């Protein structure tokens, strides 16, 4: 498939974040073929998109999600993490079925695509169903197989092997698999050691929750004499690629370790605020050049997966909390929410608008009252844009949504099914 986008403004995000006005962009198969000031006559396209009053930018990457959890939206609201998990979420999750996981995932994916997310890093039970939903939706996804308990059992291993066989590196690498030990307080040390060896054998990423609450930090210090970050470091986890969700309670040594070992921090500001977990030291991580990305967490602790809103909150809280308006600038947050996601997927040519790069793109409709006047496009996108401004979403060169209409999922049927099970 060849797509021509004409007369559009673009934001390049990788090195310096900058805007270019009124260009032609050609997409061929899964990649950006050209970006040009003029139309290239010999590009024979199948499909044309008019870019007048629109902005093309790299798609958003949501680095920490639990797709099926839209089914649990608003369960246990107004409680702290441990109360929420142990008294509301874990008991309800025991009742979930494969069907719930598939339909809940699809519902979350609709919300994600509608707000411009082109790639996600997930972890949950029923990973096979989650992977199927991600596959069906057309999004780019790394699917985490949930691991909790004392021992690495044969049934855990065979679930991982099945999901790996069915979904790792599927559809031109669009779907991949990661191992997701839940957290240091729900997995024994032996289990974590075995999982690490298994991840090495399969050559996959690790995705886990680290240092989310003060309780977790204190538990780690009391039981093991080290912080959660140092605990994972000493186990050898950071010799692999680890996506560490939350990273709220870090000491200076933790920040140094994370920067040096290139741990990928998934900043989840809304979930951290809703569960009153705290505010992650993102300015300090950025100062040390650690890799920071952005995530929503699951729908029950957010209560949505709107990455535009997440970016907005991330751009504001560190300024207010530290009484410093220069922290987490609009250009930094845009990079965090888009191009830094490439580190998760290990795809170098992803996360920017450049020739030869993956066509994982969103088109924003600028013809909205809150986006006029366009004095500073980057500030307008971070501080004023709404999810409903996302007009078109393209992943791997395929159009998943156009003019606000999701093409890959039958919404009427999905809402009907969701209503039946809720
Ligand atoms: C490992 S599968 C996912 C597991 O994690 C639970 N969960 C969702 N959000 C959070 C969070 O913010 N901290 C810790 N655990 C969380 C989810 O309910 C599943 O049980
Ligand atoms: Zn989580």
UniProtKB/TrEMBL annotation:
Q: Cite the binding residues for Zn(2+).
A: 64, 66, 209, 297
UniProt key word Zinc: yes
Keyword Zinc tagged = yes
| Catalytic activity as recorded in UniProt | S-adenosyl-L-homocysteine + H2O + H(+) = S-inosyl-L-homocysteine + NH4(+); S-methyl-5'-thioadenosine + H2O + H(+) = S-methyl-5'-thioinosine + NH4(+)
Boundaries of every Amidohydrolase-related domain copy: 56-400
Q: Known InterPro entries for this protein?
A: Amidohydro-rel, Deaminase_MtaD/DadD, Metal-dep_hydrolase_composite, Metal_Hydrolase, MTA/SAH_deaminase
| One Pfam family from the record | Amidohydro_1
Q: What class of enzyme is it?
A: hydrolase
The UniProt GO MF terms for this protein read: 5'-methylthioadenosine deaminase activity; metal ion binding; S-adenosylhomocysteine deaminase activity
Domain of life, per the record? Bacteria
Identify the CDD domains for this entry: ATZ_TRZ_like
What residues bind substrate, as annotated?
Answer: 93, 182, 212, 297
Its keywords, alphabetically, are:
Hydrolase, Metal-binding, Zinc
Cofactor dependence: Zn(2+)
- Enzyme Commission number(s) of this protein: 3.5.4.28, 3.5.4.31
How cofactor binds (record note)?
Answer: Binds 1 zinc ion per subunit.
Family, per the entry?
Belongs to the metallo-dependent hydrolases superfamily. MTA/SAH deaminase family.
Entry function:
Catalyzes the deamination of 5-methylthioadenosine and S-adenosyl-L-homocysteine into 5-methylthioinosine and S-inosyl-L-homocysteine, respectively. Is also able to deaminate adenosine.
Protein name per UniProt:
5-methylthioadenosine/S-adenosylhomocysteine deaminase
Q: Which organism's genome codes for this protein? A: Tepidibacter thalassicus DSM 15285
Q: Which gene encodes it?
A: mtaD
């Amino acid at each position: 498939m060849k797509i021509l986008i004409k007369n559009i403004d673009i934001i390049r995000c990788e090195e310096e974040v900058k805007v270019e006005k009124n260009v032609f962009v050609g997409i061929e198969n899964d990649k950006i073929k050209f970006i040009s000031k003029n139309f290239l006559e010999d590009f024979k396209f199948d499909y044309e998109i008019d870019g007048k009053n629109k902005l093309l930018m790299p798609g958003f990457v949501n680095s920490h999600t639990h797709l099926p959890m839209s089914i649990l939206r608003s369960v246990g609201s107004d409680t702290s993490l441990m109360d929420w998990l142990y008294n509301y979420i874990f008991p309800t999750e025991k009742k979930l079925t494969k069907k719930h996981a598939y339909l809940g995932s699809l519902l979350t994916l609709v919300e994600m695509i509608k707000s411009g997310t082109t790639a996600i890093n997930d972890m949950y039970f029923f990973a096979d169903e989650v992977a199927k939903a991600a596959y069906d939706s057309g999004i780019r996804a790394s699917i985490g197989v949930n691991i909790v308990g004392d021992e690495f059992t044969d049934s855990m291993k065979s679930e991982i092997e099945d999901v790996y066989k069915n979904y790792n590196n599927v559809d031109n690498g669009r779907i991949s698999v990661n191992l997701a030990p839940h957290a240091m307080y729900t997995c024994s040390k032996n289990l974590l050691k075995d999982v690490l060896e298994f991840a090495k054998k399969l050559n996959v990423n690790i995705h886990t929750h680290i240092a989310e609450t003060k309780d977790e930090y204190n538990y780690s210090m009391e039981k093991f004499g080290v912080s959660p970050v140092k605990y994972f470091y000493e186990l050898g986890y950071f010799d692999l690629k680890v996506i560490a969700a939350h990273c709220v309670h870090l000491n200076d040594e933790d920040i140094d370790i994370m920067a040096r070992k290139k741990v990928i921090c998934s900043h989840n500001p809304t979930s951290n605020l809703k569960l009153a977990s705290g505010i992650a030291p993102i300015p300090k991580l950025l100062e040390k050049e650690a890799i920071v990305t952005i995530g929503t967490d699951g729908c029950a602790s957010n209560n949505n997966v709107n990455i535009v809103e997440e970016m907005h909150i991330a751009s504001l809280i560190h300024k207010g909390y530290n009484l410093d308006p220069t922290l987490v600038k609009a250009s930094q947050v845009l990079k965090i929410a888009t191009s830094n996601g490439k580190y998760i997927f290990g795809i170098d040519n992803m996360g920017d608008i450049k020739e030869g790069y993956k066509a994982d793109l969103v088109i924003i409709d600028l013809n909205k009252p809150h986006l006029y006047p366009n004095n500073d496009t980057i500030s307008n996108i971070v501080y004023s844009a709404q999810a409903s401004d996302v007009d078109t979403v393209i992943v791997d060169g395929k159009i998943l949504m156009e003019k606000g209409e999701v093409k890959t999922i039958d919404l009427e049927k999905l809402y009907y099914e969701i209503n039946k099970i809720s």
